[in-house]
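does this look right to u?? zinc ion version
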Amino acid sequence: MKEFNRDYLEFELDPRNIVIVDSTLREGEQAAGVALTLDEKLRIASYDDEIGVDYVEVFTEYGDRERVLLESIRQLEFRNSKIQVWNRLRKSDIDLCLKYDFEWVSITAGFSDIHLKSKFRASFDDLLQSCLELISYCKEHGLKVSLHLEDSTRTPIDRLIKILSEVDDVDRIRDCDTVSVLIPIAAYNRMKLLVDNARGIPIEVHYHNDRGLALANSISAVMAGASSISATWNGLGDKAGNAALDEVILLIYELYGIDRFDLSKAVEASLYVAEASRIPIYRFKPVSGYDVFSVQSGIHQDGILKNPEIYQPYPPKLVGREWRIVLGVTSGTHGLSYLLASRGYKLPDDERKVREILAYAKSIAESKKGYLDEDDLDNLARRFNLENLTR
Ligand SMILES: [Zn+2]
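got this back:
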């Protein structure tokens, strides 16, 4: 994939590391109607660790649900993941974190006009001062700090540059496209400005998907120098959610050669989160959608059977999956023959008869509004008295 873009980029996509933050346990549960049990949350965190996700984000202790998660998650022995605890701009929140002895905290403030005026009801200088004081407090207690800049994509760039020039002690800045205003080329140019002024402080992107651009904007920002992406399993999150974690790690593998994440386990995690959240995965969701490697069209079936690379975005094995030929309304005789052979049946040599069988198969597909399953294929073979080579 990389080579097809190379001629059109003004820079090289050299191998580099990108830190991944899974926000499912915080952001994902903000998706309307999602309610995860403690066991489910711990399983998701364990998946993150098994896959190699760098940070698992949770809320600080606001009530019993958060408290039991914090108490339980710190008992897990992670090999790869660290816990990052999300806080409001309050010393009392940080004190709750200190109680649990976590290393990483994030603190949140928004400097856009609307956040200053209507949410924080503070001037820019006063809010920045509060941030700096809380960051100092965290650092005095030996914490690593991510400064979560809510709505930063609607914040004037000179304000962001001022913030970057003042926050000497933070370990990461989180840039948030809270209401999804970015488009990819702007995300790139804007991030260049931020990185040029960040004095080496790593920048994480936390971009929302209200306009379907979370992944595109995240990767554009990474190309401009952002070093970390916040994502959630299946893109679950507030409103239209965020970038989907499995899609993020596939893309950074392809672009930057980052192969430390277990992609086939990522598909398993995606399916698990779909079940736990009761939010089914769209059948054609990239990477983990049930039918993204199902081939129905006759022309494509012919191609895939000759050489999968004719229509292959990436080898399905990369994500622990396989190509599948299915028989539906747009299928052709190659697919029909292949599928019947897989059940042990042989099509007759008579072309007219084959066309008749295909037409009947399509009528079944149309009436069931789907593709044929194994029973349908067996019934088809019986109806047309096809020879079974396995008997
Ligand atoms: Zn968010």
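The chain has a mean pLDDT of 96. idk if thats expected tbh
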